[in-house]
Task: structure prediction
Amino acid sequence: MNIFYAPPEQISVEEIELVEQEAHHASRVLRYSEGEIITVVDGQGGWYIGHITRITRSSVRIAISEKREAAQGLPRLVLGMGIIKQRDRQEFAVEKAVELGASQIVLFQSQHTEKNKVRTNRLELIALSAMKQSMRAWLPDIEVASSLEECLDLFPDHRLLIAHEKLDGEVGIKNEYAGETGLVLLVGPEGGFSEEEVELAASRGAERVSLGSYRLRAETAAVTMLSQFLR
Result:
């Protein structure tokens, strides 16, 4: 099943309007026609079913026949990740984070980060595609922070978990933290966190968690942490 995205401002009580790329994809690529049933999500938990009432060159209008709310679930998962130098690996991490249920993604400049510039527009498109592909109704915000400290400042009420490659042990953290309302899962870039960053996180109450006995790439570590809470 194909699903489409319309932000809340394009949705009224009775009607949805798809525009730009989403309208093009529905009418020109998939060749939906007037009268057909279509499914739309709003990125904030809203899930809509309706039929197409009008197709123009620039929009697709849909009459809503059914609406339901998709629960985001707890704990609320935030991925805090050091910026990765290679763009394709950073994009992979964001894509998989969305598929695995992250509600927010913060990419931060770490002391071991080798690249400063992040193409947030492209990452937002990747996140949107991943949301639709995985049939989720929540679209995570993507932010860029200048440091780990700035990232931590965004979440004073969340419990912090930091992946530390020097900590051996079994992987399996879901049960211990299942009762939390919000978790920030911290993953370093290539080369991991500096000792100063580890100490900073610890001073904010972060708990070190093991991802196993082997050294993982940054994007693999992000996937491994998030997959512990897959729902």
Q: What stands out?
A: The chain has two domains: 3-69, 76-227. Residues 3-69 form a domain with the Ribosomal Protein L25; Chain P fold (CATH 2.40.240.20). The mean pLDDT is 91. The two ends are 20 Å apart (CA to CA).
